[in-house]
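Quick start: read one record
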Amino acid sequence: MVKTKAPEDAYTAEPFLPERGGLPALRRAAAECRGCPLHRDATQTVFGAGAADARVMLVGEQPGDQEDRQGKPFVGPAGKLLDRALAEAGIDPGEAYVTNAVKHFKFTRAEPRKRRIHKAPTLREMTACGPWLAAELAVVEPELIVVLGATAGKALLGSSFRVTQVRGTVLEEEIHGRAERLVPTVHPSSVLRSDDREAAYRGLVSDLKVAARALG
């Protein structure tokens, strides 16, 4: 008997995308995604959240521990810091669409039942999840994308992306067949890990003010 490959061995979410429908249809379909092995250990898919007509889309790396448990993006400590920084920069967090390049939490444990430690997704895993991000962009059609950190940048702009080189600038690129404007900045979790948290936070707010001005 020929053993058939599991869907995740193909490393693409493409077969799981619905043929039609808006964000609710995408969210329902993403809950059943088996496009890469990350679904096996994660609690659930964490799809994007926000209005379909949002002017700005915020793209992070992947869900964290709290997001994985609650099923919503940016609800942990990094998300709370991001909301504060957005508001300070003049962007209403409630009017943004927030999502991640990868929709399942990737983690490691030092020991069973110990705290789950975030592990960066591979390029293969980011590419597998790409169809979901492309579908979100096609539905929301944001005026501006705020790229949060290196992983999100690599997922959208390619493996040569370096957040330190382009943060706080407005880029114009073709993303998934659409002309997009993007403002890259650091991921809010890097602010929480910084030795000088206040300086790192001020840098994040400064970058987000560039995004606010770009929105007009």
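The chain has eight helices and seven strands.
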